[in-house]
Amino acid sequence: MTERLATTPFGGGRMTARVFAMQKRVFETQARLAADAGGNDTGTAEKWQLLRALTEARAHYGLSDRTIAVLEALLTFHPEKILDGRAPIVVFPSNAELSVRSRGMAPATLRRHLALLMAAGMLLRRDSPNGKRYCRRDERGVVEEAFGFDLAPLALMAGDIHQQAERARAEARRYQALRAEVTIHLRDVAKVIEAALAEGRAGAWAEHQIALATLSGRLSRKASTETLEERKAALVTLRRQVEDDYLKALSSEEMSANDLQHERHIQNSNTDLNFEINGHESNQAEPPRQEGGPARKGVAVSLKRVLAACPEIGSYAKDGVATWADLVKAAALVRSMLGISPDAYEKARAAMGDGAAAVVVAAILERSDQIRSPGGYLRELTRKAEAGQFSVLPMIKALE
C-alpha cells in the first residue's frame, strides 16, 4: 500500500497540481536527507541569516518587502534559531497575533502575502479538520501534532536563496559602479567643454554641448543595467571626441611648457639614465631583462626621488609607498580620482611601462590644479612615449 502524504486545504481552499507537486518535492527531499545525512545539503539554516539573504534576493522570487515582513512575523513563532527542514516546522499563530507581529497588517492583506509565500514554494499549509491553527501536546507538554504553516520548504530552499542573494549583491555592486562611471564621464566632459569655451578654443563645442545635453537626461533609480551600459558607452565615445578636439586646439607651447613646467622632448637614447633595480639606482644603457621573460621597461629616476618630488601620491597608499609596486597600486587609485579613463591609463602603461606610467600619474596629481585635462595630457605623453620621445626625468626635475 502506498502512503499518501499530501494534505488538502480546509473549506473552500482548492487543491491544485502545483500544491501537490510542491508537497511531493518537500517530502522526497526530506526522505533523501534522512537517508543521506552525510551530504553537503543538510536541510538546515539559521533563520535570521536566511531571512536577510531572502530580503536581498526577493526580486528573484517576486516577493515584496511586505511579503518578507509577513515571513519575518511567522519566523518569530518558531522558538529555535535554526530551521531544520528535515521534518515539518509548523507554526500556528492566530490571525490576531500574526497581524500584530506584522505591524498591524489587515487580514485580507495577510492572506494575500501568505498566498505569495506559498506560491514561491516557501510555505505549506497544514490545515486541521476544522481549519483552526493549534497543536496537540502529550502529558509532558511536547508537541505531538500541529496545524498551521509549515516552514520546512523555506529551510530546504536555503542553498538556492543564499546563491541568489550573492548574485543580487554582485549585480548591485556592478550597478553602482556603472552609475558612478556615468556620473564621472558626464562631469569630465562638461568641464572640458566649459574650459574650451571659456578659453575660446577652436572646435565643434556647440555640437558637443548638444550631444552632452542628450546624454545628460535624468536616469531613473530603477534604470536597467542595459540602459546604464548604453549611456556609458555613448559618453565614452563623446569624451574621446571632446578630449581629442581640446588637445588639437592646444598650441605646442601649452602642451610642452604650460601644464608641467618645461617638460621637454627628449630622445630616449638611454646613454646615462639611472634605472632603479630592486630599490637601488644603477647606470645601465639598456633596461634590465627579467629571467625567462620579456624586457622590463626601466624608470629613469629612483623611487626615493619620485616620492620627494611627488609627496601627494603617498596619501593614497594605505601603508605608504615603500616599493614600486606600492606606487603602481596608488597610481591606479589616483587615476580614477583624476578622471583618467581606464583605456588611457592602460595605453600609457603599455607605452611607458608600469613604473613610468605611475610616475606620470603622481606628477599630474602634484600639479592637478594646473592641468585642465589629466586624461588628455596623459594621452599626449603616451603618444610621445610610443614615438620614443618621452622620459619621466624632466618631469621630476621640474617638480623638484
Strand percentage lies at 5-15%
Mean pLDDT: 79
Quickly give the structural class.
Answer: alpha+beta
Biggest beta sheet attributes = 4 strands, antiparallel
Overall geometry comes to: elongated
| First-last Cα distance | 93 Å
Helix content estimate: 40-55%
CA-atom Rg in angstroms: 33 Å
Number of strands: 8
- The arrangement of helices and strands along the chain is HEHHHEEHHEEEHHHHHEEHHHHHH
Number of helices: 17
Number of individual domains = 3
Q: Which regions have little confidence, pLDDT < 50, spanning 5+ residues?
A: 1-6, 256-296
Give a written overview of the molecule.
The structure is a single chain. This protein has 400 residues and is α+β, with helices and mostly antiparallel strands. The protein folds into three domains: 17-156, Arc Repressor Mutant, subunit A; 172-249; 256-399, no CATH class. Helix content is 55%, strand content 8%. It has helices at 17-35, 47-56, 58-61, 65-75, 95-101, 107-119, 152-156, 158-198, 205-215, 225-249, 252-258, 303-309, 324-337, 342-352, 354-366, 374-386, 393-399; strands at 44-46, 82-84, 90-91, 124-126, 134-137, 143-150, 274-277, 280-283. The strands form three sheets. Strands 3, 4, 5 and 6 form a four-stranded antiparallel sheet that branches. A two-stranded antiparallel sheet has the order 1-2. A hairpin with a 5-residue loop joins strand 5 and strand 6. Helix 2 crosses helix 8 (158-198), helix 10 packs across helix 16 (374-386) and helix 14 (342-352) runs parallel beside helix 16 (374-386). The longest helix has 41 residues, at 158-198. The N and C termini lie far apart (93 Å). The relative contact order is 0.08. Mean pLDDT is 79; it is low at 1-6 and 256-296.
